[in-house]
Amino acid sequence: MTLPCIICVAITGSLPTKTNNPAVPITVSEQIESTHEAFEAGASIVHAHVRNDDETPSSDPEKFARLKEGIEAHCPGMIIQFSTGGRSGAGETRGGMLPLRPDMASLSVGSNNFPTRVYENPPDLVDWLAGEMKTHSIKPEIEAFDLSHILQAAKMHQDGRLTDTPYVQFVMGVKNAMPADREVFDFYIETVKRLFGSEAQWCAAGIGPQQLTLNEWSVAAGGHARTGLEDNVRLDRDTLAPSNAALVKRVADICAQNERRVATWQEARSILGLRKA
Question: Where are the beta strands (DSSP E) in 112-166?
């Protein structure tokens, strides 16, 4: 039986603004509405950032609390994944929302180049974030911007800093980091299965025009897919995406073309070994 495909929707991120695409949800109420539409289109995970009123990134736990409450009310059962990314804060402020106990949280276990800066993830901060996730029973999603990040996740799993089998997401297409390279993508999959077992689950995210490419590769290869306005604001070169839901529907269509069902939130929780909603 073919494994259903889990669709993760990254609704907002830290960079896209309404100038880039008016559909980018900025306020908590906009984020809840956009998430609900994406949930109905087939997304079972929401990857969430929060913003200030001026659209700049925020790590305000109060905003995360209101977003979590709204998603739980309007998208019952959906897996809530908070971002601990570096654009919204420095040091331990990046994990200040983890006591809210989302189902999952992103965890970058190493540093790499971004388009205009270094994305810094020093070892002591990585260990602290992993420890907070462990304390609050949050499943990390390992954001792998480089092969070394997969190997570091394996080391952290071996020594107990990560308790569950790591759920690794390959991030490809970030300028100055790993491009969308098919041979590298295939080697990433091989590496995950070698280190974590043949049944280990993985996901992939493509940035900008590479989003569609990575969606197609992931679905066809039996993995899970991330989409959303955080990573890409367009349907094609000439067309802005009208919503997060439209990008989710595009992945659902790719699943249908590959004869894979889209995972329900119940199936997604079971596949990832998460607690019941």
Answer: 112-113, 118-119, 139-144
